[in-house]
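Pilot study result, target chain (157 residues):
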Amino acid sequence: MSRLLRSSAFLLITALAVSACQTARNEPPQTTATPSATPAPEPAATPASPMAPAPAPQVTLRAPEPPINDDPGQFMGLDRGGVAALLGDPALIRREEPAEIWQYVTSGCVVDVVLYAAGQRYAVSYLEARDETSAAVQEVRPCLNKLLRARQSAPVS
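Predicted structure:
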């Protein structure tokens, strides 16, 4: 092949290769805005990508409840004033000589504080707890805890 033909073919192939590498510029069509009575529809929300991380859950931290002395033993031997100072006024006082039963009611349970006459005063001899169906509760402490916490958060008048 002649030298001229080879160089012409080379130039043609090079020109084709260079033109193939160029990117076309697509200009967006020009539109003129015309006022319309209805607004343009909102674009549809695109679903989250399956690779996108899920949003972190919102966590509200609460301060731990302060410790509270819910030991039933602290009531033993207290007089009326001592019981009232810890638990407030009872919902009911039942008198059955020689005893008084002070009844306190809280969510889910009832606590009876039994005071016996000791000379001229009354003193706590034992405590008893019942659930909302009046069935005896084995442990008084959870009910006392509820009562004491309710008393702690009650507004002072």
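One observation from the pilot: The longest helix spans residues 3-21. A full batch analysis is planned for the follow-on phase.
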